[in-house]
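Slide 14.
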Amino acid sequence: MTYYMATTLATSFDEAIERTEAALKTEGFGVLTRVDVQKTLKSKIDVDFRPYTILGACNPTLAHEALQLEDKVGTMLPCNLVVQQKGDGKVEVAAINPVASMQAIDNPQLKQAAAVVRDKLSRVIETLASA
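Slide 15: predicted structure.
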């Protein structure tokens, strides 16, 4: 089982982020965090890196359900998506596969909840791929 789902877009980096956030919203997710890895690496260790942003997405209803099933699951929240510039002028968007990450927790109900989240994130990736 792969730990992520991804698609490649023929668009600008900023447009890819906007489209990703819009697709997440249609599935009930909001973006809680935005980590500009390129900027961080440059300011902290003076390394040049390609445009690479980590979006921390949360569906409050599903997060609440997961926290009720397993109080330490917050260590795996929010769901991360990566938007990164590829060498061929395209942008890749990748989302965590929560079913893969939840294999570490022995809780069948949580695994079912993770499948719901996976399906929503899969639809986000499919929406981006088909646009």
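Speaker note: The longest strand covers residues 30-36.
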